[in-house]
Specification:
The protein is built from 13 helices and 19 strands. It has helices spanning 13-25, 44-51, 67-74, 85-93, 99-106, 119-123, 125-136, 162-183, 222-233, 261-271, 316-327, 347-358, 398-416, and strands at residues 2-7, 29-34, 77-83, 111-115, 140-141, 145-148, 154-158, 197-202, 207-208, 214-215, 237-242, 254-257, 277-280, 287-289, 310-312, 332-339, 362-367, 378-385, 392-397. An 8-stranded mixed sheet has the order 12-11-8-13-16-17-18-19, sandwiched between helices. Strands 2-1-3-4-5 form a 5-stranded parallel sheet, sandwiched between helices. It has a two-stranded antiparallel sheet with strand order 6-7. Strand 16, helix 12 (347-358) and strand 17 form a beta-alpha-beta unit. Helix 1 (13-25) packs parallel to helix 2 (44-51) and helix 10 (261-271) packs parallel to helix 11 (316-327). Bound molecules: cytidine-5'-triphosphate (CTP). Cytidine-5'-triphosphate is lined by residues 261, 280, 282, 284, 286, 313, 315-317, 335-338, 354.
Length: 420
Amino acid sequence: MRIILGVGGGIAAYKVASLLRLFTEAGHDVTVIPTEAATRFVGTATWEALSGKPVSNSVFDDVEKVNHVRLGHDAELVVVAPATADLLAKAASGLAADLLGNTLLMAHCPVLFAPAMHSEMWQHPATRANVETLRSRGATVLEPAVGRLTGADSGPGRLPEPEAIFEAAVALAGAGNAVSGAASGAGDDAKPLAGRTVTISAGGTREALDPVRFLGNRSSGKQGVALARAALDAGARVTFLAAHMDVEPPAGVELVRVESALELREAALAAAPTSDVIIMAAAVADFRPAEVSDTKIKKKDDEDAPLVRLVRNPDILHELVQARNASGGNQLIVGFAAETGDADGDVLEHAQAKLARKGCELLVVNQVGVGRVFGQDETSVVILAADGTGPQSASGSKADVAAAVVDRIAAELARVAPAG
Ligand code: CTP
């Protein structure tokens, strides 16, 4: 694959030498385009030696080769790392003062930005707007990792590890190639969700009581992450709605962070119209405190402990089904259910009733009990379909179960609405 590796002027440029090695060792043909500032951190000699190619950042070198047009035009993947605040701003504005700017404007292949900067810069409204602009144009902007930054401070802003960028880049290129493969009628089997957008909610919502306390649940987010990886592997573009999770969100997704059920509802309804599939794997709190205190609730010796009154949260899954039906859309909506058997019925009876109540097409049913499912690595589910076709069991690691769920989704989509 012909890869352009744009390197920005940040201290994390040194880590990109390892990323370049990962690409070349995997057999890719990589042309490195550092910015002027990047060469103050890592010199062109390093990039030339590691890529085995001449390196330039000027549009006035080798003018006869028309590099400012050719490199972007011929690229099959562009990766920019570290994507500094300045580089993201230039890319969002379409500035073309140097070779990397020209290349980004010419590229019609998947483009991946791996940001690295101080937390304040990442969180600044200007950077947020630039990231939004780039994502809305189809670029993938990874979330920076959280941890120690260049100085003594820490927070979001670290360059994701070279392996994570590599994994995201390969998945993105796979999705892009699968889209063109699907357009030409080839590769549909290998990438059954090529050209599809899948929205996945994951983790557990937190319902605030006051600025420091919340009601939460034990969801780890692992199943949602496994589903996202399986969907990416199947060639989908993935929007990942992350409530609280014990694990990192996967690389290569469009990440939306939420806290409460109400925030998740807003994010899910916003993502729905452009999604082919919505998977509600999040553990959504059914209730939230009726009142949220603006200040920390204090204990007082002369007063009883406070009583917390709860109110119902909206049923997001059900609302997604209603919104889809009202708009005449045709998304496939998938729910998850954690069930226990009780005096009113066994697990599958409860699950069938829930499937009918929610109105979604598929329900992935887990049997829960103390120590089962939440945070565990092994799981076992039954996939129920609203049309009654083939209840299907899957068990093993969360990745195995996720692959089975994604396969079933792909089969449903192929049956109902073939891609293209
Ligand atoms: N869900 C949702 N909104 C809620 C609660 C749940 O969208 N307020 C979604 C979950 O993401 C999951 C599915 O609904 O996909 C099933 O969640 P579950 O909590 O098992 O269902 P409930 O409707 O809460 O049913 P019950 O409390 O009767 O078990």
